[in-house]
Amino acid sequence: MFYCKVKGREIWRISPAEVRSIILLSDAIISTNAIKLANEFGVEMIFFERGQPVAKVINAKYGGSMRVWLNQLKTWKKRRSEIAREFVRGKLHNQIVVLNYYRRKYDKDLVKEIGELDRLRGEVLGLNDVKDIMGREAEGAKWYWEGVRKILPSSLHFKARLKRGAKDTFNIALNIGYGMLRSRVWGAVISAGLNPYVGFLHSLRSGRVSLVFDLMEEFRSPFVDKPLISKAREDAEKVKDVKEIYSLLSSSILEEEIYSQARKLAEAMVDGEYRPYLSR
Fold first, then answer.
1. How are strands ordered across the β-sheet holding 21-24?
2. In principle, which of 6, 72, 193, 213 could form an S-S bond with 64, CB 3.0–4.6 Å?
3. Domains of the chain as residue ranges with CATH
4. Above 90 in pLDDT, residue 147?
């Protein structure tokens, strides 16, 4: 059994069969017996600091599927730009879907932003250089966040997307949400037998889970941005509550879709074609 104590007093206990993942904050303490039990029952363990995942416990026997790993390296050498294109195509498509949803729901003037994103989506299909593909992704981000700015309540004072040093409420909520998404995608990549360090869109860097960041791109807007925007429109005060954010995104980040997409990506390393997750 897992059990939790606060100041020596037991708060709760639960069977490992009922636990999917354990998230530990920087000041938490966990026993080696709990770690072994989590490993035995396949419970993922992720360590968070300042709202971001910093480490993940992986079974010592994990080696992925050697066939998938070898084909992943071959695909990286021969078809890197092709796979990178699909990640960005999926991201741009899903950003368009989110903006279109709020354009219709709140009668917002987002025609310019949506039009530019659609243009970039078309341009990406004809690119073969990863730097050019990333350039279109970055340009799309500017238009997308400008659209989000128009949708959000002015009381949130959201001006632009900030990854580091964010002090406004909505950027902080996004950073927490992306941290949660990253942990889910990381688990899916490992489960699919892929090498998380060999990415196609994001460059390879020692210790960087590039493939996790790649696959995250498709899910950011539908699984994190959209529910947070809706919550902010409903009650701007609620996106200031960390517990509210965790509760909201625990249900909006659809693990089944993420794991399914990771398996499709693994299959693409062996059989060829990859198609991104496209929301409706």
1. 21-24, 44-49, 52-57
2. 193
3. 2-57 (3.100.10.20), 67-271 (1.20.120.920)
4. yes
